Amino acid sequence: MGVTVRFCGAARTVTGSCYLFETPAGRVLIDCGLFQGPKTLKELNYGAFPFVPSDLAAVLLTHAHIDHSGLIPKLTRAGFRGPVFATRGTIDLCSYMLPDAGSIQESEVAALNRRNAARGRPLVTPIYTQRDAITSLDAFRPIDYAAWVEIMPSMRARYWNAGHLLGSASIEIEFVGEGLSGEPLRVLVSGDLGPDAKLLESDPKAPTGLDYVICESTYGDEDRPPVTRESRRQHLAAEVRDAYAAGGALLIPAFAVERTQELIVDLVDLMERGDIPAAPIFLDSPLAIRATEVFRQHADSLEADLDVERLLRSPHLHCTASVEESKAIAMFTGFHIIVAASGMCDAGRIRHHLKRWLWHSKATVLLVGFQAQGTLGRFIADGAKAVRIQGEEIKVVARIRRLDEYSGHADGPELARWIAARRPIQRGVFLIHGEAPALAGLGERIAERTVPAAKVFAPLLDDIYELTTAAPTPLDVSRRRRLAPEAVTNLDWHNDMSKLILEINDAIETAADDRGRGVIIRRLRRALKGDS
Ligand SMILES: [Zn+2]
C-alpha cells in the first residue's frame, strides 16, 4: 500500500487536530492537539492514541494553539522519541503554552479528585504534568518558512505562513515517487488560516499544483462583512463606550495568545487617541502575560506601521500574574476592563470574573472569538438565562455582546478563495476542523465552482483514506473507531443534562405560586415514570 492518511482528530469538530500519514518508509503526524468542548470528546484525551507513538518518525506542528499542540507531551510520555518540527515563533509560544496546559491539567485533576474522594469514586491521573510538558520541549526543532526539510527518506516538507498566529504555518508535503506516474505525491495541510487584513499577521501564503488539499473549515458557513483595521477598531470603541455607559466591568474572554495582544494594542491605542475613556485594563492570565512578552520580542516581525512594543508596555495595562493580584481586581466596582483566558470560558481566571459579574446588569461580556459547542462561552453566546460555573448556578443578567472581527480565522469566502488559489488540485479536497454547518457551508462554496463535487470529502473521526490511488479510497475502519460517528456530532448528554436542570430551576422559580410549582414537579415525576 502506498500513502494513507488517518483523520485522528478535528474531523467534524474543531478541536484535537491530528492527522497520521503512513508510507512504506514510515509514519508522520501532523499536529497532536487536545480535544476540547463536550465531555465525550474530552475523554479521548485520556484514552490511548490510535497509533503507536514510538513508531512515529516525526511530528510536523502547524502552530502553537493547544487544540493543535496540546497532546505532544502525552505523546512523549507514551514513548515518542522523534523530532517535532515547528517554526521559531511556534516553539517560543509552546515553551510557555505546553507547561501551562500541564499545570492546568494537574490542578483540574486535583480538584476533581477531591470531589471523587468525597463521593468514594476512583481517583484519576492527569493526562500529563507540567514536568512532562517541559520534557517534551526537548524534541522541538526550529525550521524556517519556505525552506524544504527532509522529514524521513522519501518525504520532505515546507512551511508557509498561514497568517493565523505568530509562527503559524500551512504545511506542504511531498512523498517522493508516490505520484501517479512516478513524480512526487503532493499534499497541502492548511493548519488554521488567518483572515485577510488581520492585525499583527500577513495574509496566508501557500503553493499551487497539488494532489490533495486538507483544509480547515471553522467559519466555512460565515460571510463576514469586509473588515478593515480601522472599522474593527471603531466597532471595539463603540462596544467599550457602551460598556462604560452601563457602568460595570467589561469582561473580555480572550485566547491568551495573539487575540489578547491584538485587543490590548487596539484598546491602548484607542485610549491614547481619546476615542474611549481611559480606564485600567487588567490582563489577568499568567499565560497571556508571558505570551505578551513573546510578542514584544517578535514585535519587529509583526506589524510595520504600529509600535507594538511600546503599546504593550502602556501604563493603562496592569498585568496581574499572581493569585493575590488577580483577587484584588474584585475590589473594583466601576468601569474597568478585564481581559482573561480562556477564550471559550471553559477554564482559566475568566470563570472567576464571570461568577462575580454575570448576574450584574451593569456588567458587559464581550465575546471576541469562536465558541465551540459545549463550552460555557457557547452557552452564554446562545443566550442562556443561567449557567453553571464551578458547580454553582449563576443567572445571566449582564449585557452579552459579540464582536467577530477579531477572529484569527478566515471566513467562508476567504477559505474558498484560498482553496481556489491552490489549483490545479488533482485528486481531492478534505474539509476538516469544522462543525457540521461550517463543513456543509464551505463544501457548497467550492463544490463544482473550484473542484468537482465528487472530489470534496468531509471525513469522520478515525477515517483512513488511501491517497496513492487515482481517487482517494476510504479503507474499512469500522472496528478501529474510537467513537461512533453520531457521538462526535451530537452535543453530548452532559450538556443536555445541565441545560435541563437550569430549565427546571427556571420554570419552578417563575411559576406563579407554590401550587404552580407543585404542578410542574408532579408532571416531571410522571414523565420520569414514562406515562404521559
Ligand atoms: Zn489555531
Polypeptide structure, described:
With 532 residues, the chain is of the alpha/beta class. The chain has helices at 39-42, 66-69, 72-77, 88-118, 130-136, 229-246, 259-272, 286-297, 308-311, 323-328, 350-357, 376-381, 412-420, 436-446, 485-489, 493-510, 514-529; strands spanning 4-7, 19-23, 26-30, 56-60, 84-86, 140-142, 149-152, 155-161, 169-175, 185-189, 210-216, 250-253, 281-283, 317-319, 337-340, 364-367, 386-389, 392-395, 399-402, 425-432, 456-457, 464-466, 473-474. 34% of the residues lie in helices and 19% in strands. The protein has an eight-stranded mixed β-sheet. The chain binds zinc ion. The site of zinc ion (ZN) has 6 residues, from loops.
Shape: globular
Counting copies of identical and different chains, the oligomeric state is: single chain
Strand element count:
23
**Average pLDDT reading:** 91
Strand order, sheet with most strands: 6-5-4-3-2-1-22-23
Instruction: Give the uncertain stretches in residue-range form.
Output: none
Q: What does the secondary structure layout of this molecule look like, with pairings?
A:
Layout: E1 4-7, E2 19-23, E3 26-30, H1 39-42, E4 56-60, H2 66-69, H3 72-77, E5 84-86, H4 88-118, H5 130-136, E6 140-142, E7 149-152, E8 155-161, E9 169-175, E10 185-189, E11 210-216, H6 229-246, E12 250-253, H7 259-272, E13 281-283, H8 286-297, H9 308-311, E14 317-319, H10 323-328, E15 337-340, H11 350-357, E16 364-367, H12 376-381, E17 386-389, E18 392-395, E19 399-402, H13 412-420, E20 425-432, H14 436-446, E21 456-457, E22 464-466, E23 473-474, H15 485-489, H16 493-510, H17 514-529
Parallel strand pairs: 3-4, 4-5, 5-6, 10-11, 11-20, 12-15, 12-16, 13-14, 13-15, 16-19, 20-21
Antiparallel strand pairs: 1-2, 1-22, 2-3, 7-8, 8-9, 9-10, 17-18, 22-23
Helix pairs in contact: 4-5, 4-8, 13-14
The structure holds zinc ion.
The site of zinc ion (ZN) has 6 residues, from loops.
